[in-house]
Amino acid sequence: MERLKNNQRLIRGLVFTGFFVSYLFLMFLEFFPHQISLQVGQVSPETIKAPRSIVFEDKAKTEEAREKARSQVPKVYLINPETNGAILGEVNNFFLNIEKILKQSLPQKQKEKLITAEVPFTLPAGMAYDLAGITVERWKACGRAATEILGELLKKEITPENFTEIKATLPDKVSRYNLSYPEKEVLLLSLNYYLRPNAVYDPEATEKLRDRAAQAVPKVWVSVKQNQKIIGEGEIVTPEHLAKLEALGLLKPKPSFRNFIGAVFIILFTMLTPLFYLYQQRREVFNNLNLLVLLGIISFFILALAKSILAINVGAFPEMTPLVGYAVPLGAATMLIAILIDFNLSLLMTAILALLIGIGTELNLKMSVVAFFSGLAGGFGVSHLSQRKDLARAGLNIGIVATIAILALELIDKTSLSTAFLAALVLGPINGILAAVFTNGFLPYLETTFKVTSAVTLLELATPSHPLLKKLLMEAPGTYHHSLLVGNLAEAAAEKVNADSLLARVGAFYHDIGKLKRPYFFVENQFGSTNPHEKLTPNLSTLIVTSHIKDGVELAREYKLPAVVVDIIEQHHGTSILKFFFQKAIEINGSEVKDEDFRYPGPKPKTKEAALVMLADSVEAAVRSLKSPTPGRIEGLVRKVIKDKLLDGQLDESNLTFQDLHNIAQAFDKVLSGIFHNRVEYPDINPEALRKEKKS
How confident is the model at residue 683 (pLDDT cuts 50, 70, 90)? Predict the structure, then answer.
């Protein structure tokens, strides 16, 4: 076991494998343990009853009804005016050409030959001879009848489908005219010859009408009561049986090797992408296995929660069942990751988890979009967390964003307005409420378990009502007010050097709590009383003063302060020398006194925040000792204190640069100049003398 603990690479591999298997298991996990495998046509080996009441959409029947509606929509044709003009022109030419023959002064037999040659269709025997004998006026009457009949027919759409039916009406239409036998016969023959379909098929308009008809068909909902028999033992399995079993989650899906391979690659991408980002951008988080495990647990929790929510069946509102995924509170994961680990990482995980939620809902893009935007709202809502109620405000933002996103997507998807508004106004707020509740509920436990200090915890520590600060105020008021001023200095400087200003302020508030054990041995708590150090040797005084570090660490652990605050308490003096007692010891014992005996035990500040508290503490004490603190003297003293700490090597491990030290000095000057400014002396006023002066 000890060897295992020492092999970090092996531990990381085991953790990665554990999460990989867990995610894979979650992806294929069905929440209903009793599952059976049946196929259409198979004999059921047992009687199966519904374990619960559900109402579900029978997608097969819905699709069948919609396909039927589509098939009932006829093809759309558009009348072609050019075709109509061509038909009328051809008929008119036919009658004009015959009319020209009839006008000629030729024997009837010769006209018969010319008519036979002119007619493009076959005439019954002897009809050409009969036509050659009729008058021009009668022939013109035939032509007018032909034009009228065609004019009536060509107003309608003549398609290949109805062409035969329309041609069948020609004899009735011809019979309405007072014409002789050969006249009616040639009229009917010519109409049959020249009439043809005048409409062109319009596939685009046809598809639109068919789609509209399909959308108008309502979904087919099937209701199943609890304990209702789905199928009896020995009955033949039908598609309806399978639909009910599948809706109840009792039908075991067919194992698919393709699905398994796809899931393996998706999970690998899901896990490797944030690790690659952390390796490139946040190496300290990548190297912290504790935080990686925390990231994995938060992600697994939100996916398991999503799977549970997606299994909810809304029996009273069946149309809402496919939409319950909108309530998945991805914002909770985003906020927890942003608060506990890293803000930019939380945005990346929002995109990845939203993608996985979409995959879990049969590649439903709408679920991914809503989860993504609501997650972003949660992340940005806590990006500048300054008080606990910011979490509630972030939950409100998530609810608003989710509501708008749901409504927009359902309107685009042509969902009925009632369902779209119901889903948006119910599921959107639920999403925001769940995100805020889960974040507030889990945050303290995750902080404690993984030893992570969030901004929320620091904010709670910064309140004056904290027991330790109240104790400091009552028992060491000088130290308390000194700590508040150090906190203001450290916070102002932290904002200039891109350090954690909240941690610097809270660390400053608690940096001197060790003085609670012997408050009157520190000058800020003596209030004009006798200084006990006047009766002690320099070595003993040094021992008492430096012990406030050890006492402070013990007190901080007793009150369960976070490790980052304990570190600041322990490091805020580094290995600095107590110059006063060191000089006093030299005056008493000579130059053989060793400076090591008058230094704090350390360690030196290892973070920017600890170094800022050290500098703020030293600067505040030094400036307070000035008898006439003018701006010029304050500025000079601030830079001298910082320079002394730098030359003494106290800042060697703090990652502060020379530019940082310059910025820190400017921040200290600004704060201290506001505190130690000169004020106009108020004159003493004698009311009696003033009254006499007014009377005179």
Answer: low
Give, in order, the Cα–Cα distances in Å from 437 to each of 35, 349, 378, 384, 429: 34, 20, 12, 19, 12
Measured between alpha carbons, how far is 379 from 335 in angstroms, rounded to an integer?
5
CA angle 142, 148, 153 (to 5 degrees): 125
Q: Please state the three-class secondary structure of 80-109 as a single string.
A: CHHHHHHHHHHHHHHHHHHHHHHHCCCCHH
Q: Which amino acid is at 367?
A: M
How buried is 575 (Cβ within 10 angstroms: 0-12 exposed, 13-18 middle, 19+ buried)?
middle
Asked if the model's pLDDT at residue 215 lies above 90, the reply is: no
Q: 365-381 and 389-412 helices cross at what angle (nearest 10)?
A: 160
pLDDT tens column, 649-672: 999 988 889 999 999 999 999 888
Quote the percentage of the chain above a pLDDT of 90: 39
| Strands 77-79 and 199-201, sheet pairing | antiparallel
Q: What pLDDT sits at residue 525?
A: 78
Task: Pinpoint the alpha helices (H) of 451-537.
Answer: 455-461, 467-475, 477-496, 501-510
End-to-end CA distance of the chain: 100
Task: Give the list of residues 6+ apart from residue 34 with CB closer than 8 angstroms, or none.
Answer: 51, 250
Neighbouring C-beta atoms of residue 133, cutoff 10 Å: 12
Q: Report how far residue 270's alpha carbon sits from residue 272's, in angstroms, rounded to the nearest whole number.
A: 6
- pLDDT for 285 beyond 80: yes
